[in-house]
UniProtKB/TrEMBL annotation:
<keyword id="KW-0862">Zinc</keyword>
<dbReference type="InterPro" id="IPR008584">
    <property type="entry name" value="CXXC_Zn-binding_euk"/>
</dbReference>
<comment type="similarity">
    <text>Belongs to the UPF0587 family.</text>
</comment>
<dbReference type="Pfam" id="PF05907">
    <property type="entry name" value="CXXC_Zn-b_euk"/>
</dbReference>
<dbReference type="GO" id="GO:0008270">
    <property type="term" value="F:zinc ion binding"/>
</dbReference>
<keyword id="KW-0479">Metal-binding</keyword>
<protein>
    <submittedName>
        <fullName>DUF866-domain-containing protein</fullName>
    </submittedName>
</protein>
């Protein structure tokens, strides 16, 4: 899939399957818009994934959400293992861990090590920075893998300065080609828009969420 937005990672190198907390930070230029966030818990986040042991990169974009992983196992290339798909369950079992579950489980196609990731229970934080600065959107606990990229494609929502709610389709052709979403707030009689969307991953220290 094409990417109309910029992304970079500032995660220090790591090895093995130790747990690391990664925060997805986003920023965007908001025009007469006071917040921006995914439309629901069903939002399918598209990530690029890398094994922290051998540094192999998953060849596909991987999609998962707070409820289930959205990439069906049969859609993956030969030699890759991933739990997920449209199944009536919230989490998946992790091998070797007593009662351990995760939103995403992957067996690396190079070193064959299993890795996993789990959304933290804290809610998604709507983006509302008027100075176009990076702000945290969500946090994921990772073991044996790290996310290296993010594609925001999907349905988001935002509010205008008048309180009017808007559906923001970041799979729209204009956004995909130009990186711009726009509409009109009739109550406030002003145009609304989102542009210059960018994201980055940051490793957090401890349980407090400090970088």
């Amino acid at each position: 899939m094409s990417k109309p937005v910029s992304h970079h990672s500032i995660i220090p190198p790591s090895t093995g399957a130790s747990m690391v907390r990664l925060a997805l930070y986003i920023k965007a230029e908001l025009t007469n818009v006071v917040d921006l966030q995914p439309a629901s818990d069903d939002f399918e986040y598209s990530f690029k994934v890398q094994c922290t042991k051998c540094r192999a990169v998953h060849p596909n974009w991987v999609t998962l959400n707070h409820k289930v992983s959205a990439t069906p196992p049969h859609a993956l290339p030969l030699g890759l293992f991933l739990t997920g798909g449209s199944y009536p369950q919230d989490k998946y079992e992790v091998s070797g861990g007593k009662n351990s579950t995760a939103h995403f489980v992957w067996r690396c196609h190079e070193c064959k090590c299993e890795s996993s990731a789990k959304f933290e229970t804290s809610p998604v934080t709507p983006y509302s920075d008027e100075n176009v600065q990076f702000a945290p959107l969500l946090i994921i606990e990772c073991r044996g893998l790290e996310f290296t990229d993010f594609d925001p494609s999907g349905i988001w929502k935002c509010s205008g300065t008048s309180g009017t709610s808007f559906t923001v389709d970041l799979e729209d052709r204009t956004f995909r080609s130009e990186g711009v979403w726009s509409d009109y707030d009739e109550k406030a009689a002003v145009p609304v828009g989102i542009s210059e969307f960018a994201s980055e991953w940051r490793a957090l220290k401890g349980k407090t969420g400090k970088k």
